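Write out this protein's structure.
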Amino acid sequence: MKPFDYQRLETPEHLGHVEAGRFLGGGTNLIDLMKHQIETPDVLVDVTRAGMDRIEERGDAVLIGSQVSNTDLASHPLIRRDYPVLSSALLSGATQQLRNKATTGGNLLQRTRCQYFYDTARACNKREPGSGCDALDGLNRFHAILGASENCIAVHPSDMAVAMAALGAVVVTRKRDGTEGRIPVTELHRLPGDRPDLDHVLDEGELIVAVELPASPPRLQSYRKVRDRSSYAFAVVSAAIALDLEDGHMRNLRIALGGVAHKPWRATKAEAMLEGKMPEAALFMEALEQEMADAEGHGHNDFKKILAPRVVVAMLRELTGLGGN
């Protein structure tokens, strides 16, 4: 591992008093990347004691500190009661040991688990811009079918981020000049385009302080994850859904997909088609097929174009009381 300087952030307000570097929270992803020489920061800024480890109700929002562990977030009574989709996503995401260390902010900013990204002997534009993408013609079963580019077809690995996308979460940040930012979680991550090495829209040295959830989320919620083994595996395809049923009509419908894109993918086309309608299985499938109209497989992952709609349709049938699979 390359030598680095270590500094500690006392409070978010002191961000301008430490050097710009990589923030160290739980370290469950960053330390691995440093060991592989994929990440080689000159400075690590420890943010674990900066007072960002609380869950608070604030008027019309619930504020989750960026250093709240995945375990504490998943098990918090308020989250389990009002945001069960988030709790379910977190519990499906990793081992207990990892959840104890992993943090809310770090989970959002974790990097792809693409095997070509981790293998420094292979071409990867995300790791080394301009080197190519071996996943395009390689083993790409886990890779993106939506929003990808000729430069990168990696997917974002977070389960938590998919649930937060369905809940309409907002990321609260602090910049080095002391100003604050508010970024919808659906806009935090970038699509690859011609710069797949840029994962997110944060400025250099910009710190995630908290995540805001709406205090009155849709009441019907579900998270489902399709994976190769029954525990502690990354999603082949996942989905988070939140909606209300009012007089038999679907309202406030939000559908987010994981394992299909460079970021949690909000199925806005399907949402628009279903909003205000009465539940109907054929309508569900029509809406999801419309969402998948631009999906592009790369051989090994072609099946995702069929699997993703079926997962969402099954979840919608269950949530709206239609039953069946």
